[in-house]
Amino acid sequence: MADTQISQRVKQANDIVDVIGEYLTLSKRGRTFKGLCPFHDDHHPSLDVDPARQYFRCWACGKHGDVFTFVMEKERCDFRTALELLAQRAHIDLEPAASKSRGASKAELFQVMAWAEECFHRQLFAPSSQTARDYLEKRGLSGETLHLYRLGYAPDQWEWLSLRAKAAKVNLALAETLGLVARRESDGSFYDRFRDRIIFPIRDGRGRTVAFGGRVIPGTATAEKGPKYYNSAESPLFTKSQHFYGIEKARPVAEKVGFMAVVEGYTDVLMAHQCGVLPVVATLGTALNEQHLAQLRRFVPKVVLVYDADAGGRAGVDRALALFLQHEIDLAVAFLPEGQDPCDFLLANGGDAFRARLAAAQDALELKISQLLAGDALATVEGKRQALEQILGVLAQVPEQSSAALELKKQLAITKLAQRFHVQEELLWQRLREKRGQIAPPRSSLPRQVAAKARPAAAAPAGPRAAADLLERHLVAVLLSAPELIEQAQRHVGPADLEHPGVREVVELLYRLQDAGQPVTMDRVRLELAERPALAQAAERAYADGLAHGEQAAWLADLLARFADRQRSRQRRELRARLRSLPPDAPEAAALLEALQKSS
C-alpha cells in the first residue's frame, strides 16, 4: 500500500474528536466541540474541534490543523512518529508484508522486551533475591517505587532467561537481536547477557521498554570482576545516545515547568521521582551529546545539569557549555555538596531541598565567568587575559553558519564578557574571529560608523532562515489547500520566480507531484518533507491558512496578477541597471531605453 494510502487510512480510523478527547475534556457546542487549548495557558475554552471537517483551531493562540497536526504538536514529534502513534491507536500495521518476511516487526520485538521485563520483575521478589532487595532498600527505594518502575533481578545463572524463553516459546533469535542473550561460539547455544544484576527497564517516551540497564550488587563476586553498570546492546529499538532513563515519567511534568534536570544514575532518578521531583532523567552511561539535546529540545527550552561540586563537576560544566552554545537550548547548572550524589542528597535532605537546588541553578556561562573571576589570577592583567581566552575558546565552537537564536546567544555572551571584564566588545569580537577563522561579527557589535558604511542600500535577498515574502507564502497556501489549481499556477509562476528557498522547495515538490500524475495531498507533502521538520511545519501553517481563507480560485487569480507585476518590476530594475552601466552613446542603449518605456 502506498504511503499516502496508509496515512489516509490511519486518518480515517482516528476521528479527531475522539483523539483530542483523550488529551482533554471536550463539550459539544452546536456542530463543533469546545475545550481548553493545550498549547497555551487557556482559561476560557478557545479550542474548536469540527467533526465534519476533521479539523481543530484555537481562536486564541492560532494553532490549527488535522488530527496529525494535533498529535505532532502535543507529542512534539514529526509526522512519521505521529503516524505510528495513530496507527497503533487504531491497530493498523504500518509494516508491509514484504518487510516482515525479511525480519521481525518492531511490535514483535516490543513483545519480547515486555516478556523479559516481567521475568526480571518477578524474580526480584523471589525468596532467592533477598540480597538484591536489601541493597535497594538500603538505597532508600520503596517497594512502591520498585513496582512502579518495574525493577528486576537477573540471577547469577548462565541460562536462567534462555531456558525460560525456550519454555515460553519466545524466539531466542529476537532475544539475541535485543541483547538479552548471546550465542556461544563453541556450539551455538544461547547464554544470558545479564547475570547477577539488578535490572532497570529503560523506556522510550511512550512508556515502552526498549532496553535494560544492569547494576552489580556491592560485595558480590560479580561486583569484583565485572563493570558496575551494563546496558543492553544497541538494537532496532534502542540507541544509547538517544534515550534517557525515566523520560516516560519526567516528560509530562518537564513540559509544564519548562526545564528538565539531568543526573547520572538510575537510582538518582528513582529517588528524585520518589520524593516528588519528577522532571529528572539520566543519560545511559554516556555524556550528553547532540542526539540527547535534539530529544530534549522537543520537550523543554532549558536543561539543568546536576553535578557534585568537585573538580569532575567543574570539568563537566566546561564540556556541556561548549555543547549547549551550539544549540538553541538554555543550560543551567545545579551543584550538590561535594561527595554527595543526588540520591544521597535526597535521602538526607528531601525533595524540597532538591527542588530548591534546581530552582537556584545558575546559567552555565555566567557560572563559568564567576568561577574564573573567583581566582587570584585575575589580580593580574595576564590572569584576566587567560580567563578571557578560556571563555572565547568555548564561544569559538559555535558554528559559523548558525541560526538567529544562536547568534543572539553569542552576542549576549560577548556583551556579558565585555561588561564583566571591562573590555570593548570590538576587541572581543576581533579575538574571537582570530580563534575561529576570519568571520564577520554581527553588525550590532560593530562601531556605529562602521556599521553604517557596511549596511547595504537595499534589503538583502531572503536567506534560508529569513521570512518568506507574503506573496510567496500565499501562493503556497493556495496550492496546498486547493491542489486542483496547481496546473494553472504552474503556467504562470516557475520555481525560478520564487525568491525564498523554502517556498521554492515546496512549490517544486507540488509541481513534481502534479507532473507525475500523483495525488497532491497534505499527507503526501508531510511524508515528502519528513526529514525537513521546520519546512514541514511551515507547510502545515500555510495549508491551514489556505483552508481558512476559502475562495482559492479568486485568490490565485489575484496572486498571479501580483506575480506578473513583480516580474515586470524586476525586469524594469534590470533594464535600468544595464542602462546605468553603459555609456550614453552605446549602440544598445537606445534599444534598452525603448524596452524600458514599453514595460512601464
Beta-strand segment tally: 16
What's the CATH first level of the largest domain? Answer: Alpha Beta
CATH homology superfamily name of the largest domain: DNA primase, catalytic core, N-terminal domain
What fraction of residues sit in β-strands?
5-15%
Number of domains: 5
Task: Estimate the mean pLDDT confidence.
Answer: 84
Helical/strand content category: alpha+beta
* Spatial extent as radius of gyration: 30 Å
Overall form: globular
The percentage helix is: 40-55%
Distance from first to last alpha carbon: 54 Å
Q: Pick out the low-confidence regions.
A: 97-102, 438-466
Tally of DSSP helical segments: 29
CATH A-level architecture of the largest domain: Alpha-Beta Complex
- What is the chains' assembly state? single chain
Main pleated-sheet profile: 5 strands, antiparallel
Taking strands numbered 1, 2, ... along the chain, how are they ordered across the largest sheet?
A: 1-2-3-4-5
Named CATH topology of the largest domain: DNA primase DNAg catalytic core, N-terminal domain
Protein model, in words:
With 600 residues, this protein is of the alpha+beta class. It folds into 5 domains: 3-97, DNA Primase, Chain A (Alpha-Beta Complex); 104-238, DNA primase DNAg catalytic core, N-terminal domain (Alpha-Beta Complex), CATH 3.90.980.10; 242-371, Dna Topoisomerase Vi A Subunit, Chain: A, domain 2, CATH 3.40.1360; 375-438, no CATH class; 470-571, DNAb Helicase, Chain A, CATH 1.10.860.10. The protein has a 5-stranded antiparallel beta sheet with strand order 1-2-3-4-5. Strands 13-12-14-15-16 form a 5-stranded mixed beta sheet, with helices on both faces. α16 (342-349) packs across α17 (351-359) and α23 crosses α27 (533-549). The longest helix is centred in the C-terminal third of the chain and has 30 residues, at 552-581. The chain is globular, with a radius of gyration of 30 Å. The chain starts with a helix and ends with a helix. 33% of the residues are buried. Mean pLDDT is 84; it is low at 97-102 and 438-466.
